[in-house]
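Researcher: Here's my situation. A collaborator sent me these components and asked whether they could plausibly form a single complex. I don't have experimental data yet, so a predicted model of the whole assembly would be a useful starting point for our discussion.
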Amino acid sequence: MPQGKVASVPDDGLSTRQRRNRPLLVVHTGEMKGKSTAAFGLALRGWNQGWSIGVFQFVKSAKWKVGEEEAFRALGRVHEETGQGGPVEWHKMGAGWSWTRKAGTEDDHAEAAREGWAEIRRRIENQVHDVYVLDEFTYPMKWGWVDVDEVVGVLAAREGRQHVIITGRDAAPALVEAADLVMQTTKIKHPMDAGQKGQRGIEW
Amino acid sequence: MPQGKVASVPDDGLSTRQRRNRPLLVVHTGEMKGKSTAAFGLALRGWNQGWSIGVFQFVKSAKWKVGEEEAFRALGRVHEETGQGGPVEWHKMGAGWSWTRKAGTEDDHAEAAREGWAEIRRRIENQVHDVYVLDEFTYPMKWGWVDVDEVVGVLAAREGRQHVIITGRDAAPALVEAADLVMQTTKIKHPMDAGQKGQRGIEW
């Protein structure tokens, strides 16, 4: 648990309160497990603050469904029914982004990824959510489908309180440079090393 | 995302299915953010499987309340009311463990930690939960309040499907040795380095 001590006080003209409430760009990178789970664990905190949570999964398969999705959808319903927590939207590329209403973008991942980013950009510019989880979003940037400099520019110019959490391996240097918080997860030991395959409740 | 390939097939007399469904001991260790958030993110998957979730937080303060607690309590109510997901229990040392019904164990953390472990041991022996999150449990072991070898022995002998997730810095070598999955989180960059203090929705 952080002790609340800061390494240095920057000469940025901001008060401690202003600096404290600056929205964060968080990057969770590294190997295998832990990146997305940590991002969704963090989003639970935002939900509990009553914040609007927008999840955008840049995964290829329409079928891939993680337990977090069902849990967050349940939390979204809790918000609708009782007012506790915040609203939740969960969008997935593989199934065809829900706002495009067209199924099967499986054939053109690059185009689907660009559509996803264009929508996220619109939402950021309109301050739609308080927390954006851009899951596996490093890959469209890595593969050149989405321009890293444009992403960094849009994030740098974002207004209000909009926390952005990006997960995935091989985060671009410009993204790491722009981020406030970068966490890397390293596998020290994994069951697959001992011949154990992934299992439900753990891997998904 | 893991591809489901294993590095080697062990000569342990188990079928792939048996091996696949072996319960895991997971240790999330490393610096600052990401350990507990990843553990709770993982527990969301278990909840979605309809599993019984037991969280035991070995934190000192009764006041410390993270957003995950409220979110998981809400998910527990979703289970009670609709049958979706699994039941959730959340216990905290700092407030006095709920089962002892005595407040203010703040004066003897060692005794409170031992009580917590004794209860967890009983539950594991009685197969009460499917997922145990023992948050910050490395510290009572590090400080000698709870015997590491006893913990490792109880976990090794546990029956049925009981996944155990332990978080905290400085995990004991015997615990790491016994674990199936060990993830370490490393801070590459943190807002406190730039003079930004912790903020709600992010740090708690």
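Model: Some features of this prediction you could bring to your collaborator: Chain A has a mean pLDDT of 84. Strands of chain A lie at 25-30, 53-57, 88-92, 131-135, 163-167, 181-189.
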